Description:
By secondary structure, the protein is α/β, with parallel strands linked by helices. 35% of the residues lie in helices and 22% in strands.
Amino acid sequence: MRIETITLRELRMRLKAPFETSSEVTFDRRILLVEVGVDGLRGWGEITTAEDPFYNAETTDTAWHMTRDFIVPFILGKTIETAAEIAVLLEPIRGHEMAKAGIENALWDIEAQQKGVPLATLLGGTRSEIPCGVSIGIQPSTSALLEKIECELCAGYQRIKLKIKPGKDVQVVDEVRKQYPRTKLMVDANSAYRLEDLDVLRAFDQYCLLMIEQPLAWDDIYQHSLLQARLQTPICLDECIHHSSHAEAAIKLGACGIINIKLGRVGGHARARQVHDVCVQHSIPVWCGGMLESGVGRAHNIAMSTLPGFSLPGDVSASQRYWDEDVIEPEVDVSSAGTIRVPEKLGLGYEVRRKKVESLTVRQQQWRA
Ligand code: OSB
Ligand code: MG
């Protein structure tokens, strides 16, 4: 595969509703799509950065800069055998996993097309259907939240994740649990707590939650190990895990019982597979996290979620939960059993709606070898 063209586009996409976490409110997304051209084939990837550096250190603008000034010069015109080699070529560039993943994942799409298989098959996936949950942002009131939950459960979703922050935590979970005693329920704090908040965090133990996601600092595995020793509820690490070595450290320290894998956060499919493999070796369940992706990122998430270790429902849900109209055809649909059927078409398995992409594009740059 000779990497002949790379096109980077920034799209503006407004979510159907603002999404609030403990650290930010997102409404207007600035999404970067990468289109790579190799041997007459086109592959698509998404750079899953947020607009601001409140989830991790990357932003839409840092990713544009890294792609233009470092990633493209490293790989344009290079000939590779497999998409997995991209991660090795980009190794000298420290961090910026999301920016790297955009291009690497586009090449996985191309490699699957070349080999005549669905992307899920190329990745080593074993599922034809994936279980789905939803992530619900912080709501203005508990009654608004209960209404949302009812709506998602009626649609079939298998588990509910609630975003929490100090002051909107135990009380909220208490009311939700009363209403839904048997629903698979979990919370995500996005690093809003400190070890000193132990009493609040321990209060969650009475609600039989599947897990509590990333309660402490985004970059502190050790403190999570201290907390996990004092909690019954399994901790799930999100922000802390960028590499398989972080997963191994977290598992060996006892910092978590579960890991959420996000393709962007760990730097693309090759490294996601490595994180997955470490978790499987240690019997740690994994699931696929989300970053409010467009259809392109969502399609990659679906393919990754077919790997055998993805035994818990992920934050991969229907296009219609996010967008009036998505950028892929068909849009991602969820069955009444709360599952997504994995496409059997070659490569990514969805067509990119090029007209739609063009109409949403506010900035574009192309490089040719
Ligand atoms: O922590 O999982 C998170 C969205 C943006 C940033 C961080 C997170 C999230 C979500 C939403 O929880 C997942 C999704 O529906 O895409
Ligand atoms: Mg999270």
